[in-house]
């Protein structure tokens, strides 16, 4: 799933290529992906793209329509969705069916993009709205972790609002927007903390360490993703991971010095997390969630 750094890079990528261009056609390939019916996607046709922005993991294409009313095409790529850019879109028509193509946006110079989703679990979500805040998942987003509003004090308040595992807090979009499974693993490794540490156990020093790790990991990832074509972002993300997705590989340790341990994994019903026992849990492997409370 693309997270804050990749979505920010996609917003930049699209902004550079679409700003000022006119939408000439919007084709829906998967009706299940379209979560709104009024305004219809056709209401975007004839409008000029003003900007592309990000709300957490959501992308937002702002279009000044021919009637003068701005509309927003907003979408969430979910776990298996992606954006495919074309300098010249294929001429073949979009036909709803079993294709991974969910939506196609064509611009006046022939360029445009497809939103696609692999697999059978269709979660990609597309909305056409007058205001992004009309999308409930956007209206309820938490603080942006790279914004001025995200401070050590604010993080401390979030940690102590209710007692939960810190991994879950970092991933909760209603608390902190834009962090998912991968970057929460990376942040906790950088902070040298167990993913199952309980949030109300955090004192000022641990809160500051988590804050610094969050800002550092995300800032570096945004810089690494910035300027890359959309087609390269997935591989760039994988290459940049220190522990996430690297089960069984040597832990990179700190300051270029490996710690001597390997990256371990905890599996769940539909996901997994990665961590280093030496760096994060006092050398004790996390067997599963039921055992984790012994290792906070």
UniProtKB/TrEMBL annotation:
The similarity annotation says: Belongs to the FPG family.
Query: Which InterPro entries does the protein's record reference?
Result: FPG_cat, FPG_N, H2TH_FPG, Ribosomal_uS13-like_H2TH, Znf_DNA_glyclase/AP_lyase
Q: Where is the Formamidopyrimidine-DNA glycosylase catalytic domain?
A: 2-124
PROSITE patterns attached to this UniProt entry: FPG_CAT (PS51068), ZF_FPG_2 (PS51066)
Q: Which organism is it from?
A: Cellulomonas alba
Under what name is this protein listed? DNA-formamidopyrimidine glycosylase family protein
Residue limits of the FPG-type domain?
242-281
> Which keywords appear in this protein's UniProt record, sorted alphabetically?
DNA damage, DNA repair, DNA-binding, Glycosidase, Hydrolase, Lyase, Metal-binding, Multifunctional enzyme, Zinc, Zinc-finger
Q: Which reaction does it catalyse?
A: Hydrolysis of DNA containing ring-opened 7-methylguanine residues, releasing 2,6-diamino-4-hydroxy-5-(N-methyl)formamidopyrimidine
């Amino acid at each position: 799933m693309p997270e804050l750094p990749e979505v920010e890079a996609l917003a930049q990528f699209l902004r550079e290529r679409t700003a000022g261009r006119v939408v000439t056609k919007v084709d829906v390939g998967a009706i299940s992906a379209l979560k709104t019916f009024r305004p219809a996607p056709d209401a975007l046709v004839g409008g000029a793209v003003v900007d592309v922005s990000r709300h957490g993991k959501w992308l937002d294409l702002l279009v000044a329509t021919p009637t003068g009313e701005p509309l927003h095409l907003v979408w969430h790529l979910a776990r298996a969705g992606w954006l495919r850019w074309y300098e010249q879109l294929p001429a073949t028509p979009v036909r709803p069916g079993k294709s991974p193509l969910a939506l196609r946006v064509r611009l006046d110079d022939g360029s445009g993009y497809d939103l696609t989703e692999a697999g059978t679990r269709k979660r990609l979500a597309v909305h056409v709205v007058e205001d992004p805040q009309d999308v409930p998942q956007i209206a309820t987003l938490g603080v942006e972790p790279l914004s001025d509003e995200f401070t050590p004090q604010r993080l401390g308040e979030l940690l102590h609002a209710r007692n939960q595992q810190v991994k879950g807090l970092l991933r909760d979009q209603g608390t902190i927007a834009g962090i998912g499974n991968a970057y929460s693993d990376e942040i906790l490794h950088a902070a040298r903390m167990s993913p199952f540490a309980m949030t109300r156990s955090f004192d000022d020093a641990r809160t500051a360490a988590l804050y610094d790790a969050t800002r550092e990991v995300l800032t570096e990832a945004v810089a690494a993703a910035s300027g890359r074509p959309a087609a390269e972002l997935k591989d760039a993300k994988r290459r940049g991971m220190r522990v996430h997705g690297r089960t069984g590989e040597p832990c990179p340790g700190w300051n270029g010095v490996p710690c001597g341990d390997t990256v371990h994994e905890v599996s769940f019903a539909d996901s997994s997390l990665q961590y280093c026992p030496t760096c994060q849990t006092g050398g004790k492997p996390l067997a599963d969630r039921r055992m984790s409370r012994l290792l906070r």
